[in-house]
Amino acid sequence: MRFPTFQSIRQLTSLLLLTLSLGVVASHAQSKVNKTQSGNALSSITESDVKRDLFALGGDHFRGREAGTLDELKASVWIAEQLRAMGLEPAGDDGTYFQFFHIQRTRITETSRLSIGNHPLTHGQDAFILAPAIASVDAPLVFVGKGTPDDLAKADIKGKAVAIEFSGTPPAELSYRRFLFGTMARRAAELIKAGAQAVVWVSNQPAQFYFERWTTGLERGRYDLPGGPNTRVFSQAPTIWLPSSALEWIKQPGQQLTNVVNVESFNYPSVNIVAKVPGTDPKLKNEYVLFSTHQDHDGVRRAVAGDSIWNGADDNATGCAAALAIGRAFAQKPAKRSALIVFHGAEERGLLGSRYYSAHPTVPLESIVAVLNGEMMGRNAPDSAALLGSQLPHRNSLDLVSSAMTANQALTKFKLDTLWDRADHPEGWYFRSDHLPYARLNIPAICFTTLLHPDYHTPKDEPERINVPKLTNMTRWMYLTGWDVANRPQRVRVDEGFKLER
């Protein structure tokens, strides 16, 4: 896929931005008509609106909204048009709804070479190199079975390339994917420290499932904001992953591994979408309750069961549909404080949009009272949900959490899962969504989610699989919490001594 340049995207959107701006004044005038309504606008959050926006954004039309592609841009313009139509003011850069930023991508070049014995292997097809790092290895290969202590005791691995068959079972609370990648990285580091020149993993049958479906991310390489830690090009003994079919020939003695890896790094743009509804209180309108989500997903990748569009309906068209509904409710009935809606780009690349916006906010950082983040809000049991940031050490505002708990008790009555927010949960879910950069800046922050499911990051994450009534209730819960925070006399406070475990 060819990625657009920053300049070409600016040119492409110039006419669209003009079109969006023309309707702002009329829309604002219409929104003022609703300011005299009493109470909140909870009744404006309807299943029909949520479903419409979910299917529009999470369907095939936007092709999975991969960060840095025209698909993400088109989806972002569509979101901005919805915000304009419902009367929200632009709050991005230069009087627009947009805040552009650059992604830096580092990947293995097509000139890299890999062979084992008489088997030439191509990265991204029949083998995957786990990290885009410079490497040059020419070493004899030794097969150590499943790498048990007995297997390793019988082998001389110093100065060799070590081939090992993957094995093991994850603990019940850890997904196999994270167990797989974590185990390969940890054990490879141990073997390299013991003298191995390279480590070659061969899939067992459970790992083969992920070799076929999850390796598209390895093809793409690493991402970061320019100058970030994942942009560094370094030398490293390679870790290579092979399919289960390689087990038949990898055991043959006397084979040589030759691996020459080169990497390249380049920049291209992504975008945040930012809109606001000004508050009604002369003083408090200068403070903001930020409703956060992300619009990107995985885009078009290797087909699974004939489907190459990784839609990301739950991750995170559900959060986007919720944010649009919340924006619509605030437009109909503004609160005392201003509502700020931010759709973050490139979340799937390492929370890049939220990291960029929290470092370059379009409103004074100290004016952001709280961040309410919506992430994957429409799957699993109808009455279950989770609130990340609700317990120590992740909780940074008892006031904010109490508001959310009160809203849930009064309205939605979800049974709240507390395991996934624990510091010892192996998935580390708290650290994987857009509330995190704000929490690190000591801004009160929580995340509304219904947690992982088997379709996570697969082409099966489609709108038809979303529980729309549940998503609507999650949206109402998030809105009612934000409405309370936006109208209370005093700001929600940051807990004294807040410190994350990592």
TrEMBL record:
InterPro entries: M28_fam, PA_dom_sf, Peptidase_M28. One of its GO terms (biological process) is proteolysis. It holds the Pfam family Peptidase_M28. Residues 1-29 form the signal peptide. GO terms for molecular function: metalloexopeptidase activity. Keywords: Signal. The keyword Signal applies. It comes from the Bacteria. Residues 272-478 form the Peptidase M28 domain. Transmembrane segments: none annotated. The keyword ATP-binding does not apply. PANTHER family: METALLOPEPTIDASE M28 FAMILY MEMBER (PTHR12147), PEPTIDASE M28 DOMAIN-CONTAINING PROTEIN (PTHR12147:SF26). This is M28 family peptidase.
